[in-house]
Amino acid sequence: MRAAVVRAFGEPEVVEVVETEVPEPGARQVRIKVAAATLNPVDAGVRGGFFGGAGKRIGFGWDVAGTVDATGVATAWSVGDEVVALDPGMVRPVGTHAEYVVVETDAVAKAPATVDAVHAATLPLNALTAVQALDLLELQEGQSLLVTGAGGAVGGFAVQLAARRGVSVTGLARAGDEELVRSLGAARFTSGEVGAGGVDAVLDAAVLGGAALEWVRDGGAYVGVRPGAHPASVRGVRTAAVAVAADGARLAELAALVDEGVLTLRVAETYPLDEAAKAHARLEEGGVRGRLVLVP
After folding, report:
1. What contacts 285, CB < 8 A, 6 or more positions away?
2. Under 8 Å between Cβ of 28 and 75
3. Phi and psi of 225, rounded to 5°?
4. In sequence order, what DSSP letters do the residues of 247-291 get, joined into one string?
5. pLDDT of 79-131, one tens digit each?
6. Do 194 and 150 contact (CB within 8 A), yes or no?
7. Which domains, ranges and CATH numbers included, belong to the chain?
8. Torsion over CA of 51, 56, 62 and 63, rounded to 10 degrees?
């Protein structure tokens, strides 16, 4: 099968598509024939060597949408099931940017019925990150939340999910994103300063760090999206960062919200798997609204 990998770190041109063995599922695993897989900023970090692995062949991709192609023992999934899954991992020989991928059965969920595989592939990583970050914040109905990077993938899901919980959301994004962010459910929008201590909590999808922490009231909460990079607590503000985990049951709930029209899936562009390097180059340019998706 074909898979996108790097063997040396660097700019987008180091990405290559190679032939490699089709993986076999073990116990409590399924093999998915990939219909679509999303390119995320974490993949750029892998390509640049941010997570290590020098001298190894390293694959890309955490998100996948496709069809169950083979199963190991002790799985409830059947060949032919249309599914989505999160397959996390920084340094491994092959990721989801391939024709086939093997994942743990508990990471898999039924694909949303109302969207195609390209859109479905944008759900797992970013929506699970958003919902798990909101869980860490422990906000109650009526409390206020600032979402930085509200026009992005994680931020956009966070706005929608928080608004659905009855949280009053302020979205921070570029001025040109105001219509989008408000359409996702933000009660307020800003493209600049928020004001010290102005909100109960911040979900820092834009990784602003200490600057965003200043906008949280004393005793509030801050959650970032880059593990290990969140600022230290000040003024009694509880700080943490989400380390996204595969969770098929939670992913199934998110897929159902897609079918209910609660969550919006945004695709910026699609690329054939063989043009993975071009997709990386587009990601590097910035300004992408929606996700870039690879199609084998």
Report:
1. none
2. yes
3. -115, 10
4. -HHHHHHHHHHHHTT-S---EEEEEEGGGHHHHHHHHHH----SE
5. 999 999 999 998 999 999 999 999 999 999 999 999 999 999 999 999 999 99
6. no
7. 2-123+265-295 (3.90.180.10), 126-241 (3.40.50.720)
8. 150
Give me 190's structure tokens.
């800003």
pLDDT at 194: 85
Give the β-pairing of 168-172 and 144-148. parallel
Are 168 and 187 a contacting pair, CB within 8 Å?
yes
d(CA 18, CA 34): 16
Collapsing DSSP states into helix, strand and coil, what is residue 126?
Answer: helix
The answer to whether the CB of 174 falls within 8 A of the CB of 228 is no
Distance CA 143, CA 71 (A): 45
Kindly report, residue by residue over 34-90, the tens digit of the pLDDT: 999 999 999 999 999 999 999 999 999 999 999 999 999 999 999 999 999 999 998
pLDDT above 90 (res 229): no
Whether pLDDT at 193 is above 90? no
The predicted model scores a pTM of 0.96
Helix (H) or strand (E) holding 133: helix 124-137
